[in-house]
Structure formats: structure tokens, C-alpha cells
Amino acid sequence: MKKIFFIFTYFLTTSLFPTNILHNKIKSISSLQEMNKYDNLGCLTPEDIENLLQLDEKLKKDPNNINYLLNKGFILHDGCVDDQAIEIFKKILKIEPKNEKAHIWLLESMWMWGDAEKLKELSLQAIKIYPKNAVFYLYLTYALEFFCLPETDVCLNEIITYLKKAIQLEPTWLSTRISLIDNLIKLKKFDEAKNEINEAFKQIQDNFPEPKDEMQKHYEELITGRLGAESSRKTLNELLEKINNLEP
């Protein structure tokens, strides 16, 4: 009887479930177990997890590959797992201290993680390496905003200093200029705020001229970002109205 049972079992495992299928099932189970280290983390999608697992395999063979590490860090950041993303970007900077992308994404992840002290420290370090990159001045203002509660003239003036530096490097950054205007209004520097509003309108006019017809308007909305410019125009008009109401 045992012999018959053995033959029947052998038939099932070899005929109904060939070796390669069993191997794939075991491999699949192994893969699912490996997924547990990313499962339920942040807002990672199944596709994110699959990509992370593939990158992990590649990094086993080439642990200091900058491109692999950057991709892994970005997926983790984009998937709301900023604590792990921070460690990846730090690792990159140990390998390549002047990697600009790693500096930027480290600051972005640190900002999302909410560590204002570290964000300020790392922003100042990045500015020393890249004094002509406006992004780093912008992140520094984000850090300073954490410490500017309650808002005082001293901290607002410090934020304004770095916003001006960012705009000096990137004059077309409307959202940065709007932040500058908002802070100038808080300090009741109305004339300076008005000058910045006029400059912002000029930037919109120069970079996003009024479309000639509806077809061109539709194209510009899709391709050139005109909707962002239109939103900025609305905000600027609201700020101008605010100044008019606050001025004595």
C-alpha cells in the first residue's frame, strides 16, 4: 500500500506539477517573503516594491553604484519612506561628496521628514559647495521657517535675505518671489513688496505672453505651464489688494 501511495505521490509531483513549476512556486514564495521588508511602508506601490527588490539585487553585486543608489533613494522618497531615503542619499555623499542630485534629494527628504535643525545644517553645507544653485537657498528658507514661530523681524529678515539670493539666481521662479513678497508684507515693507509684484508681472509677461487664440492657449496650458503662471497672476493681484488694505 505504501508503495502504491509513493508511486501516486511521485506521479502527482512529476506529472501534474513539473519540477520547473515547483521551482517557480518556491521562488515566488521566497520573493514574497523578501517583499516583507518593504511591505506596508509609506505609500509604496507594488511596482515600487518590485523596482526596489530589483535594485537591491543589483546593489548586491555593485554596492557603490551611484545610479542604483539614486534610483533607490528616489523611489523611497517618492513612496513616503523618507527615513530610509535619507540614509541612501547620505551613503551616496560619503562615496561622492559633491553629487549635486544627492544633496538636493537629501534636503527634500529631510524637509519631508520634518527635521528642521538638520535641514538647516545640510542646506548651509550644500551652499558652500554649490553657492550658485538657488535650490539650496530655498531649502534653507524652509528650515528657517520652522524656527520663525512666533514670527519676529529678525527671523523674517533672515528668510528674506535667502529668498532674494534664490531669486537673484533664478529670476523666473514665481513661487519664490511670491514668498518674498508675502514676507515683505509681514514686515510692512510695502514699497519693496510692490516693486517685487511689478517684477513678477514682468516675468509672467516675458515668459508667458498672452496667447493669440484659443488653440494656442490650450497648447500653452498643456506644454508651457501657463496654468501655473495664471495662478501666480491671481495670487499677485490678491497680494496687491492686501497691501492696499494695509497701507495707511
Protein described:
The protein has 248 residues and is mainly alpha-helical. The chain has a domain of 72 residues: Tetratricopeptide repeat domain (Serine Threonine Protein Phosphatase 5, Tetratricopeptide repeat), CATH 1.25.40. The N terminus is likely disordered.
Give the oligomeric state of the chains in this entry, treating copies of one chain as homo and distinct chains as hetero: single chain
Provide the succession of SSEs. HHHHHHHHHHHHH
Largest beta-sheet characterization:
none
Shape: elongated
User: How many beta-strand runs?
Assistant: 0
Mean pLDDT: 83
Number of distinct helices: 13
CATH topology-level fold name of the domain at 42-113: Serine Threonine Protein Phosphatase 5, Tetratricopeptide repeat
% residues in beta strands: under 5%
Show unreliable segments.
1-33, 219-225
CATH class of the domain at 42-113: Mainly Alpha
CATH superfamily of the domain at 42-113: Tetratricopeptide repeat domain
Radius of gyration: 27 Å
Distance between the termini: 104 Å
The computed structural class is mainly alpha
Return the CATH architecture of the domain at 42-113. Answer: Alpha Horseshoe
| DSSP helix fraction | over 70%
Summarize the SSE layout with pairings.
Layout: H1 2-16, H2 19-35, H3 46-61, H4 66-78, H5 82-95, H6 100-113, H7 116-129, H8 134-147, H9 153-169, H10 174-186, H11 190-207, H12 214-223, H13 226-246
